[in-house]
Design goal:
The complex is a heterodimer of chains A (230) and B (654). The longest helix of chain A has 15 residues. By secondary structure, chain A is an alpha/beta fold. In chain A, helix 3 runs parallel beside helix 4 and helix 8 crosses helix 11. Helix content of chain B is 72%, strand content 6%. Classes of the chains: A alpha/beta (230), B mainly alpha (654).
Chain lengths: 230, 654
Amino acid sequence: MIKLVLIDDHELLRSGMRGVLDAQPDMRVVAEAADGAAGIDEVLRTHPDVVLMDIRMPAPDGIEATRRLVAAGSKARILIITTFDEDDNLVEALRAGAAGFILKDTPSARLADAVRAVAEGDRMIDGTITRRLIEQHLERTGTQEQVRERFADLTERETELIRRLARGRSNAELATEMSLSEATVKTHLNRAMTKLGARSRVQAVVLAYESGLVRPGELESGDFALSDDA
Amino acid sequence: MSSRVAALRPRNSDLLLGALAVAWGVAEDLALPGAAAQGVQLATGVIAGSAVAFRRTVPVGAAGLVVAALYVRGLADAQTNEAIMPLALLPLMFYSVARYAADAGWAIAGGAVLAALVLVPVWEELPLRQPNQFGHVFLLLLIALSWLAGWVVRRRWLESLRLRQDRESIQLARTTFVRAAAAEETLRIASTINSEVRSAASEASTHTEAASTVLDEDVEAARTQISLAGESSRAAVADLRRLLAVLRTEGQQSTAAAAAHGERRRKARWPAIMPAVAVAVVSVAEVLLVTAPGSTAGRLGGAVAVALPLIWCARFPVSAAVATAVTVVARAALDQYGEIGISAIAASAVAAAAAGRFASRRGAVLATGLLVVAVSVASALQDGNLNDLVMLSVLVVLATVAASAIGRRSEDLEQSTLQYARACDERELLVREALDELRRGIARETHDSVGYALASLNMHAEAALLVLDSDQVAARGHIDSMQAAARLTHTELDRLVHGLEHVTREELDSGPGVESIPALVRGSGLSARTSIDCPTLPLRIASTAYRVVQESILNVQKHAPDSDVTVDLSAESGSLRVAIVNGRPAGPPVELPGGHGLIGMRERVTAIRGSLIAGPTDDGGWSTVAILPLDAETPMPAVRDAARGGSGGGQAEG
């Protein structure tokens, strides 16, 4: 059973989302909150598996709330919910440690699937949109030297895995491409993410872009196919 | 009336020029006695000389006087000696007609009529008889070139003036322009949001209502309606998202377009070799066409020699002039045409023009002096008379002066063009920033209102579908929420679209602002000093400030039109101070302006919680001071700021 907390200042939307998620056999909404502060309290009190967090809401906003939860050592994975995917704040949230984001008008089946993916922790959701968003953001900000330094500690294999992960590969694909077992892939990725200080795969991808390990536009379109439907 | 007389007062330099011309006329009269009507010659010389002083202020009239002097001399048969003074003034007068006439019509008509008056009698040898070796063609050429030079200077000066005014108004009206652009864009976005999203949102609410109606009787029909409602709401969100994505790309495109616009054209350069080629052609043609003693080869060598230094006339103008002077004198000494030769004249004129255009002032004076001496010596060597000498000198000097004037005006024009382009660029940048800010603002607003409502509708539709079979009560609850969300969608859509439109209309209707004040003051014809030192103002304050200045200026015009006025706008401690003060009127004492102007002004000022103080000053003038608080209330601040764009943000938040 996946335990959920909803944080969104829009009551009408929250109740709808609760209806959708509670109707899933493997999920249960354990708490709701209308602002960041109350949300943080609820998360720390109820220890959910996944937090659905609105980005724009009364103090603190979704980004800041994500940062505070990470700082407080919460193990909950944070899924950002948003109306528009053209938002600079989204990259901020991913950098702060959110596991991904999903659009508010997503059909319920996909919403539920995204929550499961985040709970399991080894799949990226909305890969195409996420990467495009990171690329757009990067076009404005450029790569960062201090992020590149973080990759210095990674082994060659770990770096290669992260690079391929950023290209949208799933665990199974990584295993095939690198001739490893899926379990080994997971181990390597986890070790790499720990070295990078990344809480989630998408955060590792953001770092890969920011370091210049992966450059915007260098991906073939075929790369996206599988992960998007995951 | 007094101001019109004052406008006729010549400049000091022209007074000096006039005095010199009069002195010339008198000297000529004394030096060349023997005319039948000596008194007439003296009088016409003095009149023509005096007219020179008015060449700027009454150009056509002054030129007319000089021509008239020529006529009187001819009619009175006063000019039997070699007196040339009024004739020699003609090039300068024609230059002045083209350059300083009140408008293009006067310049053209005045120039044409006067040229006809001068040339027709010369042609017919009646009543004017000028003993001039080069004859009528030379005179015609000289007059035409002078007029043309004046015309060119005039055009460049006007163009430069226009560009400068345009730039000034661009800079002053920048905020208005940016606001208008933002307003236009807002209306466009508002109407697009309305047309793109409205129909999908309406569908969603229709399906929601249908689902609510049929839920109790027919679960399957309700299921269909609920899914359709969900689909419609998703479609509406997709429309909205696409719309905002398009806005985003538009912003990027305009950035790219502006970057392309930033390309500067290269500075145009004088094709330096052309004058040399032209003079060489004239020289060779002259050698081939005019029969003269001496070997053709030697004369051809001379023809090339006279053109050769001109190749460097743009880069080394003074040296080229010196070389030309030497070759002109050398040719005159070696060849014996009996006249100086059109090629030598052309070469001298080109060298003088180049000196005027490219040399320093001192270099130009030196070069011109040398060339005058050279053509005089050449003319004397070729048995030319005094008239030829004077006319050639006039030509050389005129070439220098005209080229220098044209050069100055060209540089001025180039400068103005550059500044104008820069002002355009700056404005474009501001517009771009404002529009980007605007789009971001609207996207934010839309996100938080319509986007949220539609997402809620979808979410409840999804929830209703999930529980439809297991829990009808819960499904009913979700359908109720769908209805609420549908209503909210429409309310938010109305609020957003109308809000945007309302703010925009207000923005567009608010009339001229602070940026229009300098033009207003300039246009009043008063002797006024304007100083404006304030940040970008909220619209109502800016337009109120404009009205206060407008009314006050009107009052000054009515009651003290010849007094000095100061218009002063300054921002201090959260308010704008608008002060219009005029001195004691020169005419009858000030009538106190208690009329509608003052009452209307006070109404406007108090409407935005400002205050107005008006009354006579100690020195017999009048002072109007309005204090306008800068924190005017604004409805719907988020959208309003967005509609206004980035530039006005500072005060609007206050």
